[in-house]
Amino acid sequence: MNFITRTLSRFGFEKRATDPSWNAVALMAGSTSPGQAESLSTVYACVSAISETIASLPLILYRRTEDEGRERASDHPLYKVLHDAPNDLQTALEFREQMQAAVLLRGNAYAEIKRGYDGQVRSLTPIHNDRVNVLQLDNGRLAYEVSDSKGNMRRLLQEEMLHLRHRTENGLVGVAPITASRETVQLALSERDHGNSTFTNGARLAGILKFPQKLKADQRTALTTSWNSQYAGGANAGKTAILEEGVEYQTVSMSMEDAQWLEARQFSVEEIARLFRVPPTIIGDLRHGNYSNSVEMNRVFVVHTLRRHMAMWEQAISRALLTDAGRRIYFAEHNVEGLLRGDSGNRAEFYSKGIADGWLLPDEVRKFENLPRMTNDQRQAQAANAQAPATGA
User: Fold this and answer.
1) Given pLDDT bands bounded at 50, 70 and 90, which one contains residue 198?
2) Dist. CA 94–CA 253, nearest whole Å
3) Dist CA 314 CA 320 (whole Å)
4) N- or C-end of the chain: fewer Cβ atoms within 10 A?
5) 266 and 287 in contact (C-beta within 8 Å)?
6) For 254-281, how does the pLDDT look when each residue is reduced to its tens digit (9 = 90+)?
7) Are the C-beta atoms of residues 275 and 178 closer than 8 Å to each other?
């Protein structure tokens, strides 16, 4: 860094990276907007399934104990921010649902960090993506230019922003699934618009009217207006056209069955679900679902869909909301036990065999189930019950 650059940096005029290849606006150029994408029921269902589930899971701040266990750090200021309310206007569920949906639709989510006098996080306030411009400074760190409704600009440092990213191409900003595979979403939109147009026009076939003589311009205009008023639109569906003086009607398009429109629409559901890695049964597509595989589909949803996003939240919290000293003591973790309760019978059998065969301890099982270690009184009571003779009926 030369003398001029150091001088500019001292007065707040840092030289900033301007490479548009990772700029969020450039990435969205020419792609489908989040609003257009969410007008597709499949996109809306996928985003809702992930964001609502992530937001409804308990996000707990734990404290590591001396015996390599853990306990809830309910006395830490960050615990209430994550578990109860991150700011004065939102609950924890509303905040995390908004942030998670932004990650899925826009690739990034931003929240301003407010700290107390002791340096601990006191609140998180979400900021809309359109108001944030990400900059990389010469020292390699990030800065965030945030604009308000009046156009005023202020800069937040990396330590003042909680930044969640979807999969990124450069490590700076994330790329949303609808941006990375925009053609898939655009095709689904085209299929949807084709259906809307077809039913708006009364689901009638497109065609041409053949006249034995040449028509004048005013005759064509009058005929078009008359034909549309009598036979176009859903209200006129099913009417029989009356043609006179040798006029013939000839269709020039395939029917919706011939074009396999319904099959294409069903395939687009699978395509979009594949983008978000959501099992089709989770978003209401039960063509391949049944009672025997629904539980397994839920497990797949937790392991292969939600796991990545939960890790994103937990690691971002550790990086942005905890100090170096705090990371050695505290950590945040989602409690997913509730999502797997439908398969508790198999888990109970697995744990029982492990304890009986001696390769699994009760405290290890309790740790897997997100439960605290047994107390000495509980261990003594369990030992007494095991030694008590069985009583007959």
Assistant:
1) low
2) 48
3) 10
4) C
5) yes
6) 555 555 666 667 778 888 888 999 988 8
7) yes
